[in-house]
Amino acid sequence: MLDTEQPQGTLSLQTIAMPADTNWSGDVFGGWLVSQMDLAGAIHSERISNGRCATISIHEMTFLVPVKVGDVISCYTDTLRIGNTSMQVHIEVWSTTPHREVSTKVTEGTFTFVALDKDGRKRPIPDEIKKVYADKGKA
Ligand SMILES: CC(C)(COP(=O)(O)OP(=O)(O)OC[C@H]1O[C@@H](n2cnc3c(N)ncnc32)[C@H](O)[C@@H]1OP(=O)(O)O)[C@@H](O)C(=O)NCCC(=O)NCCS
């Protein structure tokens, strides 16, 4: 990874790794990070589709560096593709300490969310939203 690499996407969630997020060795659980990514992706897809969404799939992920208690975790989200009811969202996680400027990419992955109605059934993404993404070649 180049030192000049920058986070891609919109900052959708920021939090701090706490002692309760660690395993018996004091390292932060990968599952905790996946859960932060899932929350960030849900915020992103609910914002795009104007309503409730659920995660339908998580693609392959690699954890590049460990996260320590006290690290500030930032999740950046970017829409890759909009379907009829689904949204593919690329999510990057970067970490830094509260008083350090440099941040490091921890992991990234692609999550797919489906827009739901109030009864939990899939619902079409509004045409005007799909058109915006079609114009960008993402639908
Ligand atoms: C979300 C849900 C309502 C979708 O219903 P469904 O009848 O299975 O929907 P479909 O098979 O038609 O798929 C819906 C969309 O998801 C996409 N999709 C389905 N499986 C997918 C997969 N494995 N990866 C990526 N996209 C997928 C489909 O291509 C379709 O997209 P499109 O409408 O944009 O073309 C249903 O699967 C569900 O409730 N799943 C549980 C979700 C959940 O609880 N998540 C949290 C886990 S705790």
Automatic annotation (TrEMBL):
The keyword Hydrolase applies. Belongs to the acyl coenzyme A hydrolase family. This is Acyl-CoA thioesterase. It comes from the Bacteria. One of its GO terms (cellular component) is cytosol. GO terms for biological process: acyl-CoA metabolic process; fatty acid catabolic process. The keyword Hydrolase applies. Signal peptide: none annotated. InterPro entries: Cytosol_ACT (IPR040170), HOTDOG_ACOT (IPR033120), HotDog_dom_sf (IPR029069), Thioestr_dom (IPR006683). It comes from Acinetobacter sedimenti. Keywords: Hydrolase. One of its GO terms (molecular function) is long-chain fatty acyl-CoA hydrolase activity. PANTHER family: ACYL COENZYME A THIOESTER HYDROLASE, ACYL-COA THIOESTER HYDROLASE YCIA. Residues 7-119 form the HotDog ACOT-type domain.
